């Protein structure tokens, strides 16, 4: 299966974690005078050195010193080259064949001929083996081993090729890991946007219920009052209808409106949680604990806590309490909201029946809770055991 790589130009950074270790290993195990690993940018058609081994030996220091004196500005260790700079490089990148030849032939067009002659004369290094790094049949780089002798035994060539295959696999794994991280980050961003869109929709519906529906119900209630005054025979029925409308307007619509969008968040996180907890007073005993640091941040309208953070904390507690009510069989719940070590921390602990997290498939409520928290911070845990207690924890960096 072919997996799309991250952008080629970012590859050297992805390789940095393994490139130097790769050349150091081949250098020490096979006795080359120098080993170089190159990255191939297919989009630009350019090969770039990523890591060297042996360049800091006494001989190579002497080579570098003479090059610097005779050719100011020349740097043979950092030279980029096009894939088609000479037939040997074109063969390496296009066919994926191992290439063994003289340094002069392999580097023709890469370094100036005078620089090449100086390197070969001072170092004595005249021959090289170039083994491509390939993933899914595509060249992504190469390993080059340089030595004085023209002899490359078959066993040494096979070792270099096997080594290159393992390196290619390692590099590809790094690329896949980076791609996974990018995908995870994009998914988290999408989930956050979906959460924001959901809250905007909730707010719109809440405002619609609170304004237009409430207003229309009030008008209907008033018109019924007019009819009641004219038709005394139907007063009892009309009184019942007016009471039902009043209950619908003052209780049901208002309750749904507040559930869709908690207006108390405009005052602060703690007041909003107090309103939330009051909804459960007939079925659960709930204690709210908040430390002084949070109270200080949450005062004066809660402006020191971002509205988005207050809302996600509110929804997290709301979801957790809903799960307790549906599944836990609990009598008491403690909701703790504190600021510690630069994090806003929330825990919801109940004394219910508990469960084995390893044996239970998460239901819709727990999955919704996970999606909501992971979209905003990705820090949350559920601790439980059969017989209880159960504690849900989440935290957000401030």
CATH superfamily of the largest domain: GAF domain
Number of helices: 11
What's the SSE pattern?
Answer: HEEHEHEHHEEHHHEHHEEHEE
Number of domains: 3
Please state the CA-atom Rg, rounded to the nearest Å: 35 Å
What's the main sheet like? 6 strands, antiparallel
Distance between the termini: 42 Å
Strand content: 15-25%
Low confidence ranges: 1-11
Number-wise, the strands total: 11
Indicate the percent of residues in helices. Answer: 40-55%
Explain what this protein looks like in three dimensions.
The protein is of the alpha+beta class. Helix content is 53%, strand content 19%. The strands form two sheets. Strands 3-2-1-6-5-4 form a six-stranded antiparallel beta sheet, sandwiched between helices. The chain has a five-stranded mixed beta sheet with strand order 7-8-9-11-10. The two termini are 42 Å apart.
Task: Describe the structure using short key phrases.
single chain, Beta-Lactamase, 19% strand, 3 domains, 398 residues, alpha+beta, Heat Shock Protein 90
Can you describe this structure in just a few lines?
The chain is of the alpha+beta class. It is built from eleven helices and eleven strands. The longest helix has 77 residues, at 154-230.
């Amino acid at each position: 299966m072919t997996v799309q790589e991250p952008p080629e130009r970012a590859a050297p950074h992805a390789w940095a974690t393994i490139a130097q270790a790769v050349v150091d290993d081949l250098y020490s195990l096979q006795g080359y005078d120098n080993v170089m690993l190159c990255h191939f940018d297919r989009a630009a058609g350019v090969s770039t050195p990523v890591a060297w081994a042996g360049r800091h030996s006494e001989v190579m220091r002497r080579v570098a010193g003479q090059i610097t004196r005779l050719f100011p500005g020349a740097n043979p260790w950092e030279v980029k080259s096009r894939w088609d700079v000479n037939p040997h490089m074109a063969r390496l990148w296009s066919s994926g064949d191992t290439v063994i030849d003289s340094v002069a032939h392999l580097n023709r067009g890469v370094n100036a001929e005078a620089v090449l002659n100086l390197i070969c004369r001072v170092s004595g290094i005249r021959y090289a083996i170039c083994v491509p790094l390939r993933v899914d049949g595509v060249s992504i780089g190469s390993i080059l081993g340089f030595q004085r002798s023209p002899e490359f035994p078959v066993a040494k060539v096979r070792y270099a090729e096997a080594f290159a295959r393992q390196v290619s696999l390692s590099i590809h794994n790094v690329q896949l890991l980076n791609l996974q991280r990018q995908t995870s980050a994009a998914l988290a961003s999408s989930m956050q946007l979906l959460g924001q869109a959901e809250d905007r929709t909730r707010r719109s519906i809440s405002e619609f219920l609170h304004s237009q529906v409430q207003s229309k119900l009030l008008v209907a209630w008033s018109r019924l009052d007019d009819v009641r005054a004219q038709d005394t025979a139907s007063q009892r029925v009309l009184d019942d209808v007016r009471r039902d409308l009043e209950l619908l307007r003052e209780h049901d619509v208002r309750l749904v409106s507040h559930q869709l969008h908690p207006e108390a968040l405009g005052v602060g996180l703690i007041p909003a949680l107090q309103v939330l907890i009051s909804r459960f007073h007939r079925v659960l005993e709930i204690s709210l604990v908040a430390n002084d640091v949070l109270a200080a941040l949450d005062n004066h309208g809660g402006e020191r806590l971002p509205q988005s953070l207050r809302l996600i904390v509110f929804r997290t507690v709301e979801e957790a309490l809903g799960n307790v009510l549906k599944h836990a069989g609990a009598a008491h719940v403690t909701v703790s909201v504190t600021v510690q070590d630069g994090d806003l921390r929330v825990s919801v602990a109940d004394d219910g029946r508990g469960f084995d997290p390893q044996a239970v498939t998460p239901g819709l409520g727990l999955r919704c809770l996970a999606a909501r928290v992971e979209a905003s911070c990705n820090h949350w845990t559920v601790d439980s055991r059969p017989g209880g207690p159960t504690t849900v924890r989440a935290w957000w960096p401030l």
